[in-house]
User: What shape does this take?
Amino acid sequence: MVTSKNIGENIMVKEDWIQSYIDSPEKHRKLYQRTLIIIVISQIFGGAGLAAGVTVGALLAQDMLGADSFAGVPAALFTLGSAGAALLVGRLSQQFGRRIGLATGFLVGGIGAIGVVISALTSNILLLFASLLIYGAGTATNLQARYAGTDLANSKQRATAVSIAMVSTTFGAVAGPNLVNILGRFATSIGVPALAGPFILAAAAYILAGLVLFTLLRPDPLVVAKAIANKQRKEESNYLAENSSQLTIQKRGIVVGATIMILTQIVMISIMTMTPVHMGHHGHGLKEIGIVIGFHIGAMYLPSLMTGFLVDKIGRTAMAIASGATLLVAGILAAIAPADSMVLLTCGLALLGLGWNFGLISGTALIVDATNPSTRAKTQGSVDVLIALSGASGGALSGMVVANSSYATLSIAGGIISLLLIPVVVWSRKTNLTESNNSLQGKSKKYSEKGMSEKL
Assistant: This one.
C-alpha cells in the first residue's frame, strides 16, 4: 500500500516514489542533470524576454514622456515589479515546488510584455507603467531559475550549477538586442510603434519559458531536495544544537551573499539604464545601441561557466573581490569614454556585465551554502526582493543623476560604490574563521572532558 506524507509545507509526495531518489545516488545524479537541461531550455527563452526591457525600455519611456529625467522609470518599474514577483515566486516554489513557482512567474511576465505593446499602440502612459511592473515578473523568474539547478547539487557543484543556468540565458539575451531593428520593422509593418517590437518577442519568449518549465520540470528538484533534507533532519538538528556558532555563520553567509548581489545590482542597473539614452544624445541609432547592450548582456551571462568553476575552486570571497574591482574599472572606462567611441563604450559595458556576473554567482553560492532545503526557496525569494528593490532604486536615480549632472558622474559614482564589496567580504571571512576556530576548540575541549570522565 502506498502511503503519503507532507514534505515541507503543502507538497505531498508518495513515499515509495521519493524514496527511490533518496536511496539511489545514480537516480539522484540523473535527475540533477535532467533538471539542468530543462533549466537551460527555459533560460534561452527567458534571456530573450528580459533583453527587451533592457534595450528599449528607457527609449520607449523617453519617447512617450518626452523627458530624459524619466528615462530611468521603466528600469525602476520592471525592477520594482520583479521585487514583488521574486517574493511571490519564492513563496510559490517553497509551497508547491520550483515547477509551479517558475512557470507562474514567466507566464505573468509574458502578460506584462503584451501590456507594454498595447500601451505603446494606444499611447497610454498609465498602462505602460502598470505593464512594466507586471513585465518585471519575467526578470525576477529568470534570476530565480538559477536556484533550481542547485537544489540537487553538492557543495562543489553549486556555483557551476548556477553558471550553467546563467550561461544559457546568453543565447536569448544577446540575440534580443541585435534583433531590435528587425523587430522594429516587424512592429511597424503591423501598425505598432517600432520601439514596442522587442516586447512582442518578450511576450512570446516568456510564455514559452513558462510552458517548458510547467510541462517538463518533473520530478520537481526542490521536492526531492526537501525529502533528502527531511531524512537528515534529526542528525542535522542535533549537530546544530551542539554548534550554535554554525547557525551564526550561516546567517552571516545570507547577509554577505545578499550584500554582494545588492551592490552589484545597483551599480549595473544604474549605468546600464542610462547608456542607451547617453548614446542617443550623441547621435547613435538603435543598431549601435543594440550592439553595445548586446555585448553588455553577453558579458553578464556568457562567462558564467568559467565564473562558476572559479567560484567553486578558488572560493566565494576571491570572486566577490574580483567583482568589486571589475565594476570599478567599468565605471571609470564608461566615464572617460568619448561619446562617439563605440569601442570604449562597448568595453566599459562589457566589463560592467562581467563584474555583475562575478558578484551574482559568488553571492548566489553563498546564499545556497547558508540555507537548508526546508526554507531555501522562501529565503532566496526574500533575498531577490532586496536585489530587485536595489535595482529599482538604481534605475530611478540614474535618470535624475544624469539629468542634473552627467553620465560620467553616474559611472564614477557606480565604480566607487562597488568598492564597498571588498571590506564586506574581508570582514566576513575573518569573522567566520574566528568563530569556526572557537567552535573547533569548544568541541575539542568537550570531547577531551568526555574522555577524562570515561577514564575516571
